[in-house]
Amino acid sequence: MRVGCLGPQGTFTEEAARRYFVEEDVEWSLHPSILDTLEALAAKQVDRVVVPIENSIEGSVTMTLDSLALNEELFVEAEIIMPIRQNLLTVVGTNREDIREVWSHPQALAQCRHYIHNMGAAVKNFDSTAAAAEKLAESGRTDVAAIGTLLAAENNGLEVLQAGIQDVHDNFTRFIVVRRIGQTVRSTERTILQLQFESDQPGALASVLNVFAGLQLNLSHIQSRPTRKKLGTYQFFLEVEAGWQDERMQKAISIVQTYGHQVRVLGTMNRHYVM
C-alpha cells in the first residue's frame, strides 16, 4: 500500500500514520503541505493519505475541511487520535533568553501561543513542524527556535531546550485516513457530512438539527466554513455518531434532502487511539 502524509520526516502526521499502519506493508510518501498530500491522493500517486483535521486546543484544520469539500474524489475512512507534546527545539548552545523568533506550522504555534507570548518572540509559519526544524538546522541560528517533535530534533541534530510547551497539558490531534471514493464502505460508527442550504431561510439550520435530534442521532461536531461563492454564505460540516449505513442516518439524509438542501457524505469511519 502506498501511503502519503505531511513531511519532511519527523512530523506529528507521519508519527500518527506510522502508528496506524504499523501492521501494513507500506511504501511511504512524504509531501510538503496538507494540500499537496491530498492532491497526491486525488492524482492516484498514493492509495491512502493521513492528514490532521482537528486539535483539542486550536480547533479545526480548515485547509483539510476545505479540501474535502472541494474534491469529490476524496473519502474519509478512519480517524486517529494521538496525544501531542510540543517541544522547543534549538541549535546546540542556544540560550532561551537569546531567542527572538519561533518557527513552526501555524497549528503548532497556536497550541503554544501563551508560551511564545511570554518569551516575547515573533513567529514564522512553515508548512510543517519538521520543515521548520530542518530550516533551523540549516541556518545554524542561535536566536531562533522551532517547535516540533523529538524525532525532528533527532533527525536534524537539534536539542530539545524545553519539552511539553503546549498551553494545555492534555493536547490531542485528530487525524483522518483518506482514500479515493468508489471502494466498499465498511460498517462504521461515525459519519462526516457536508451541508449546503439551497437558500438563506430563517431557521434552516435549526430545522436540520431537529431532524437529527428527532432520530436520536448525536452531532459531536459542527463547523461552518464559507461557500466561496458569495460573501456571507456558509456551508456546514457535521459529524454524526452513527455509521453511514445506519437506517437512522439514511433517513436523516433523505429528509434533509427533501427540504431542498444539499447533503454529501464526506466519509464514514471508526476511531482509533494511538499513544
Automatic annotation (TrEMBL):
Keywords from UniProt, A to Z, are: Amino-acid biosynthesis, Aromatic amino acid biosynthesis, Lyase, Phenylalanine biosynthesis
* Pathway connected to this protein: Amino-acid biosynthesis; L-phenylalanine biosynthesis; phenylpyruvate from prephenate: step 1/1
UniProt GO MF annotations:
prephenate dehydratase activity
Q: What class of enzyme is it?
A: lyase
**What top-level branch of life does the organism fall under?**
Bacteria
A Pfam family in this protein? PDT
What's its EC?
4.2.1.51
Q: Which reaction does it catalyse?
A: prephenate + H(+) = 3-phenylpyruvate + CO2 + H2O
Give the ACT domain ranges: 193-270
Q: What is this protein called?
A: Prephenate dehydratase
